[in-house]
Specification:
This protein has 150 residues and is an all-alpha fold. The chain has one domain. 68% of the residues lie in helices and 0% in strands. About 5% of the residues have low confidence.
């Protein structure tokens, strides 16, 4: 598979992820906001965050959709997924009561599973942004010296 196609495949996966999670949060806004209110990081800002996060996810998804803005979308995906990953890791380490603000199939994951899921998608976003920015670079090949005997 060509490197640029792999980058595009990852962009599609990220697009689906962000649209899916944004729509789940939007259509289940009451539960999303209620779980944000329980979060020590969000708490008092739950109303703002409950609208900002799905909107941000849709903006990033739109950036991924347009070829001209795809690299910016991949960078934004990396930073957004990194933030979500740090948030989940913090919650796992420092919060005894873990509210779930995820929607759909993702809400069925345990917190450790969700952390692994986010780490994988964070790494995929990083790899895709690198591949997209460097489409012509071939992987380093081992240099071999061949000898002929006469």
């Amino acid at each position: 598979m060509k490197r640029i196609h792999f980058s595009q495949l990852i962009a599609v996966l990220l697009f689906v992820l962000f649209v899916y999670t944004a729509l789940n949060k939007y259509f289940d806004m009451a539960n999303f906001r209620a779980s944000l209110e329980e979060s020590p990081w969000v708490g008092n800002y739950s109303i703002f965050v409950s609208y900002a996060v799905p909107l941000l996810e849709l903006i990033v998804a739109a950036l991924l959709l347009v070829p001209r803005t795809r690299l910016k979308g991949l960078y934004a995906s990396f930073w957004l997924m990194l933030f979500f990953t740090i948030y989940i890791a913090y919650m796992l380490v420092f919060t005894p009561e873990l509210p779930c603000s995820c929607g759909g199939v993702i809400s069925e994951m345990t917190w450790p599973q969700h952390l692994v899921f986010n780490i994988v998608f964070t790494l995929l976003a990083y790899v895709a942004s690198w591949l997209h920015k460097h489409p012509g670079h071939a992987p380093q090949q081992a240099h071999t010296i061949s000898y002929t005997y006469k």
